[in-house]
From TrEMBL:
Keywords for the protein's UniProt record, in alphabetical order: Membrane, Transmembrane, Transmembrane helix
Protein name as annotated: Uncharacterized protein
Top-level taxon of origin: Eukaryota
InterPro entries: CAP_sf
C-alpha cells in the first residue's frame, strides 16, 4: 500500500463536487462520482481544531488528553473504514466502496475539501483488483521501496507504506497544465463567439 500524497486536481474535483451537490450527507457511506474520479465522505477538521484548542491546556494535563484524542481519532478512522470495506471477496468488477477505496493498494493520490465535521475526498479510478490489498509482507510488491521515517528517539525506521512512484509530481504538473490549456481554449472560444452573438442580437432587434 502506498503512502498517500496530495493532488491539487483531486482537491479541485472535491471543491467542484461540493459546489454542485453540497456535502451530500444523504449519500453518506456511499461512493461519490465526479468526472473520472471516485470519492467518499471522510472525517472533517474537527480533530485539528481540538489540537489547536489543546495548545492552551496546562502541560500537566496535556499528555493524558493527547492520548485520549489520538485513541478516539484512531477508533473513528478504523470504524469508518470497517463500515465501508466490502464484506465479500473477490470484489465484483466495477464495484466501488466509498471510504474503503483508501485501502486499495495501488492508489497513492488524494485530494479533499473539508469543513469542521466532514470532508469530501476524491481519488483516481484504479484498475480492477479482486482484493484491496496484495498478499505478502509490507512493501514486498512495491515498484519503489518502503518509506523511512524518524522515530521518537531520532532513529531512522523503515515503515510499512510504499513510496509513491518516481516522477508522480511531474505527472501532476502535466495534468494541471492540460486542464489549464482546456480552460484557455474554452475562454478563447467564448470570447470569439461573443461578438457574433451580439451582432446577431442587434440584427434581430432591428428587423
Amino acid at each position: 500500500m502506498y503512502k498517500l500524497v496530495w493532488n491539487r486536481q483531486l482537491e479541485q474535483a472535491a471543491y467542484e463536487y461540493v459546489e454542485e451537490h453540497g456535502l451530500g450527507v444523504e449519500k453518506f457511506g456511499r461512493t461519490l462520482y465526479h468526472k473520472d474520479y471516485i470519492g467518499f465522505h471522510w472525517v472533517g477538521d474537527i480533530f485539528d481544531y481540538i489540537s489547536l484548542i489543546m495548545k492552551v491546556v496546562p502541560k500537566e494535563l496535556l499528555s493524558g488528553l493527547n492520548k485520549w484524542k489520538d485513541l478516539i481519532e484512531t477508533l473513528v478512522i478504523l470504524l469508518w473504514l470497517l463500515f465501508a470495506m466490502p464484506v465479500r471477496y473477490p470484489v465484483k468488477e466495477g464495484d466501488h466502496f466509498g471510504a474503503g477505496e483508501l485501502a486499495t493498494s495501488i492508489r497513492y493520490e488524494i485530494g479533499c475539501y473539508s469543513n469542521v465535521m466532514l470532508s469530501i475526498c476524491f481519488m483516481k479510478k484504479a484498475p480492477y483488483q479482486p482484493r484491496p490489498f496484495l498478499e505478502g509482507a509490507a512493501c514486498s510488491s512495491c515498484p519503489t521501496h518502503c518509506e523511512f521515517f524518524m522515530d521518537d528517539d531520532g532513529e531512522e525506521v523503515e515503515g510499512e507504506l510504499c513510496v509513491p512512484p518516481d516522477g508522480y509530481y511531474n505527472d501532476q504538473k502535466a495534468e494541471a497544465a492540460a486542464l489549464e490549456n482546456i480552460s484557455s481554449v474554452g475562454d478563447i472560444v467564448g470570447v470569439s463567439i461573443l461578438p457574433i452573438a451580439i451582432l446577431l442580437m442587434i440584427w434581430w432587434i432591428r428587423r
